[in-house]
Automatic annotation (TrEMBL):
It comes from Geodia barretti. Belongs to the arginase family. Keywords: Hydrolase, Metal-binding. InterPro entries: Ureohydrolase, Ureohydrolase_dom_sf. Gene3D superfamilies: Ureohydrolase domain. It comes from the Eukaryota. This is Guanidinobutyrase. The keyword Hydrolase applies. One of its GO terms (biological process) is putrescine biosynthetic process from arginine, via agmatine. The keyword Zinc-finger does not apply. One of its GO terms (molecular function) is metal ion binding.
Length: 254
């Protein structure tokens, strides 16, 4: 049983606020030396939003919200009855350098940082940021493993398959899945979307998604069948894909 009262332990409010007090890698070389299983990457980007900005502060807020002490080897998961950081090596790889004046340069910084993590053999865990960061992060995964060989499980209220945003903008928070499909990074049949609800997308866009071979589960189905039943079905259908990308989007209420 791990010692919870060791003299070298620090409470969560001390030290650098890395993700669950994980060790920090300042370079790709350090990340490789640490033999990380998971590399946590901040993507402080919110220039892809239509309404309220502020999501660029998300990675910092997530790190500061963690209550695990340091070292974090006693961070316990009650449901699985194990210590996750004793099973996998989690390393905080810092933030992608995202200039607040350019969405394109910010996306390239996220793509590059994600690719660096993949090249060390780690699984990138990207903290956003607005929904548009899925485009560079998933593109890096597809570039690493091969276009067309990656599947996407997308948890969101919206499909994010818009043809363009306001004013004809092609890269925004409502269109990353469409851009991934159009680029060939992730083909339509490799998409599974879970939790769609609300007023958008509308019928024409659902028709387009169906033509591309995309699949989705509405929130009403989850309420009726249960989340675990829906997720098990998605797992069975996605088992033929050798690699996967999971995108989870959060929404604020107006």
């Amino acid at each position: 049983m791990p010692d919870l009262r060791g003299p070298d332990r620090q409470p969560a409010f001390l030290g650098i606020p890395t993700y669950i007090h994980s060790p920090l890698a300042l370079s790709q070389e350090e990340l490789a030396e640490m033999q990380a299983d998971v590399a946590v990457i901040g993507a402080p980007v919110d220039m892809g939003v239509v309404n309220r900005p502020g999501a660029r502060f998300g990675p910092r807020a997530i790190r500061q919200a963690g209550y695990a002490g340091s070292p974090n080897d006693t961070f316990y998961h009650m449901e699985y009855e194990l210590y996750p950081t004793q099973e996998i090596r989690v390393v905080d790889f810092g933030d992608a350098v995202c200039p607040p004046s350019s969405l394109e340069l910010s996306h390239e910084a996220v793509r590059l940082k994600t690719m660096q993590a993949l090249q060390t053999g780690a699984i990138p865990l990207v903290l956003g940021g607005d929904h548009s960061i899925t485009l560079p992060a998933a593109t890096a995964v597809a570039q690493h493993h091969g276009y067309g060989r990656v599947g996407m499980i997308h948890f969101d209220a919206h499909a994010d398959t818009g043809e363009s945003g306001y004013g004809g903008v092609l890269i925004a928070h409502g269109s990353p899945m469409r851009r991934l499909l159009e680029s060939g990074a992730i083909p339509g049949p490799n998409f599974i979307q879970i939790g769609l609800r609300g007023y958008w997308p509308d019928r024409p866009l659902f028709d387009w998604m169906r033509e591309q071979g995309m699949r989705w589960h509405l929130m009403a189905e989850i309420v009726e069948r249960g989340f675990e039943a829906v997720l098990r079905g998605c797992h069975r259908r996605g088992a033929r894909r050798p690699r996967g990308h999971i995108s989870v989007s959060g929404h604020r209420c107006s």
